[in-house]
């Protein structure tokens, strides 16, 4: 398939953990494109029989002349422009932070297929955060544990709908 799925969200929510799980280290391709996209990673993602192009957004944590907010905006807007499906990841145990709300505002402007993914949801501690994220207005959050490989069936469902 030629569906492109981007994982977007603030640092430390588990984007790269999900990327590595779905792409597999042997298949990961490091993209050395200079500029704002130099840390963007793209690879062939796979869940069961479903394959797709997966993009891991990163890099705005790096030292840069630009403000954090400007880097976030650039990365998010690049991901929005290129992707068919956007997985907006937050840390379900931590709940929504102001940085998450900032991402939500950027994403709300995009007329793309956006799914909220509540990562680190392997325990009960994720439940309040998942309820909170319902209020973002992107539909029912998908509980996920990128580290433990839980919730992948729900990801399969939303990605296969876009294929
Ligand atoms: P990124 O900055 O969004 O790419 O986040 P990373 O993938 O680098 O993960 C940040 C931290 O969260 C790491 O310490 C991971 O081990 C941890 N992490 C990732 N996924 C999970 C998960 O499903 N559950 C828990 N408890 N920790 C996770
Ligand atoms: Mg990362």
Automatic annotation (TrEMBL):
GTP 1 binds at residues 9-16, 56-60, 119-122. Residues 3-163 form the EngA-type G domain. It comes from the Bacteria. GTPase that plays an essential role in the late steps of ribosome biogenesis. Associates with the 50S ribosomal subunit. Belongs to the TRAFAC class TrmE-Era-EngA-EngB-Septin-like GTPase superfamily. EngA (Der) GTPase family. This is GTPase Der. The chain holds residues 3 to 165 of 489 of the full protein.
């Amino acid at each position: 398939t030629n569906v492109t799925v981007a994982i977007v969200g603030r640092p430390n929510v588990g984007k790269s953990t999900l990327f590595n799980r779905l792409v597999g280290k042997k298949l990961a391709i490091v993209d050395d494109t200079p500029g704002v996209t130099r840390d963007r990673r793209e690879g062939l993602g796979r869940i069961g029989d479903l394959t797709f192009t997966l993009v891991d957004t990163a890099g705005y944590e790096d030292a840069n002349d630009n403000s954090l907010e400007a880097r976030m905006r650039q990365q998010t807007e690049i991901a929005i422009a290129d992707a068919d499906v956007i997985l907006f990841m937050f840390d379900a145990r931590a709940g929504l932070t102001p940085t998450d709300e900032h991402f939500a505002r950027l994403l709300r402007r995009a007329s793309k297929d956006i799914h909220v993914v509540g990562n680190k949801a392997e325990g009960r501690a994720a439940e309040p955060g998942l309820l909170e994220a319902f209020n973002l207005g992107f539909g029912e959050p998908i509980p996920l544990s990128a580290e433990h490989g839980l919730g992948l069936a729900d990801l399969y469902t939303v990605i296969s709908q876009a294929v």
